[in-house]
Amino acid sequence: MAGDAITRREALAMLAGMTSLLVARTTEASPINTAETLYTLPENIKFSARSGAPPKSVESALLYSSPEKEGIYYTLVRWYPGYMSAPHSYASDRLCVVVSGTWWINSGADFDTAHTVPVPTGTFVRRIARTWHYDGVPRDEREPVTIAICGVGPVDIRLAEPDKPLVRSV
Question: What does pTM read for this prediction?
């Protein structure tokens, strides 16, 4: 039996051999199949001005589908300093993550920027369906905010004050 035991040196040699096999195996990994895993690099994400909004107030970049279409969508929204949305609601929940900058948010149909709450990069915000809310970036902020938003369309946006514009200068 004693002859069947391996020495420490033999064990280390076997481990070294297995390590080289594992390393060799990882270099043989298949390349990414872009028909199965799609990605868009940041420099290729194109933002567009929101229809009817003042220039450099709010922009969006559709990443997947569209808020106007039936089903799930994913978009980036960028608010520039000095602009906020008017109080509005949507037909379904919206799940939001602040990607960069600070987003200023509030709930309710009474538009009062003094009561908005700053939420920094990395914050998760869930907007509950058919609840009034508004958001954007105050004029004194130095940088825009970018928010990733996921929801189910069509969004069916409703304004608390339909006679006033959705985008407001603040």
Answer: 0.81
CATH, domain range 48-169? 2.60.120.10
Please tell me the distance from the alpha carbon of residue 69 to that of residue 71, in angstroms, as a whole number. 6
Per-residue burial over 148-170, b = 16 or more CB atoms within 10 Å of its CB, e = otherwise: bbebbbbbeeebbeeeeebbbee
Choose among 61, 70, 74: nearest CA to 144.
61
DSSP bridge partners of 103: 119
pLDDT tens by residue, 25-62: 556 789 999 999 999 999 999 999 999 999 999 999 99
